[in-house]
Amino acid sequence: MFGKKKNIHLAALNVDETHPELVALLDNQAALREQRAVEIGEKLAKGGHSRCLTKGQKLASGEVTRAHYGRFCLSKNMCAISNTPSKIFGTG
């Protein structure tokens, strides 16, 4: 139905937040986000911008996302909104 890989965001009401399958899914999602954050930090380091993961963690109150890296990069004039490379930050 959707063709290519798509991201879907859902809002749920009256969900059992302790259900084992949901907990496992959310734990897996958190691990994937952490892995992506590390990979983005490594790519930025290869481009000459060291310690970006640590700096992104200071902006985040939890998981470091592309948005945190984006805010950090903009604050340091490392990129402009119109030319932020998707090959570093990814999609989705």
Describe the structure.
With 92 residues, this protein is mainly alpha-helical. The chain is built from 4 helices and no strands. The protein has helices spanning 20-46, 52-59, 66-75, 86-89.
Itemize the secondary structure elements and their pairings.
Elements: H1 20-46, H2 52-59, H3 66-75, H4 86-89
Helix pairs in contact: 2-3
Features:
elongated, mainly alpha, single chain, about 90 residues
Average pLDDT value?
A: 80
Backbone shape: elongated
Structure class: mainly alpha
User: What is the percentage of strand-forming residues?
Assistant: under 5%
Low-confidence stretches: none
Radius of gyration, in angstroms, nearest whole number: 16 Å
Short description:
By secondary structure, the protein is mainly alpha-helical. The protein is built from 4 helices and no strands.
